[in-house]
């Protein structure tokens, strides 16, 4: 489990409170670098002095102010505390669907619109953007096959 702090003083106080607790593992303080986009002054921080055994070295005058990045305290968590088990039940799923009348009405509209049309008339009913894309791709294909004289237009395609 990690917890973030804005100042080293807050982090140090929390680190000392964790040291008072009787745990087998020692918490560690990590000072993360700032985002690369942030313009900051460089700070010299000794990475070897971030554990609880070196607490006297952590909180020196150099670190008492704001740090350039963010500060995290890492503490091992008790696995038994955070295990959650999902509740599974045997139920039939509920699916939402449109009413039957919607499908019948929609089907009837399409049937009325395309009934009695020839294949050519159905082809001409296609959306203009689909035709434009087919023309564009046909011209690309001709160029890839070294047929640079080929130039298809939308009117010719229809």
From TrEMBL:
It comes from the Eukaryota. This is PiggyBac transposable element-derived protein domain-containing protein. It comes from Araneus ventricosus (Orbweaver spider).
């Amino acid at each position: 489990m990690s917890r973030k702090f804005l100042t080293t003083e807050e982090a140090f106080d929390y680190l000392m409170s964790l040291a008072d607790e009787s745990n087998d593992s020692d918490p560690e303080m990590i000072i993360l670098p700032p985002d690369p986009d942030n313009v900051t002054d460089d700070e010299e921080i000794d990475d070897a002095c971030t554990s609880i055994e070196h607490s006297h070295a952590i909180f020196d005058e150099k670190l008492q102010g704001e740090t350039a990045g963010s500060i995290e305290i890492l503490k091992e968590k008790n696995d038994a505390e955070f295990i959650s088990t999902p509740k599974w039940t045997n139920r039939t799923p509920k699916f939402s669907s449109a009413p039957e009348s919607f499908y019948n009405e929609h089907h009837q509209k399409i049937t009325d619109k395309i009934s009695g049309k020839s294949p050519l008339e159905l082809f001409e009913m296609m959306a203009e953007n689909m035709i434009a894309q087919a023309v564009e791709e046909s011209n690309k294909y001709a160029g890839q096959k070294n047929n640079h004289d080929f130039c298809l237009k939308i009117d010719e395609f229809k």
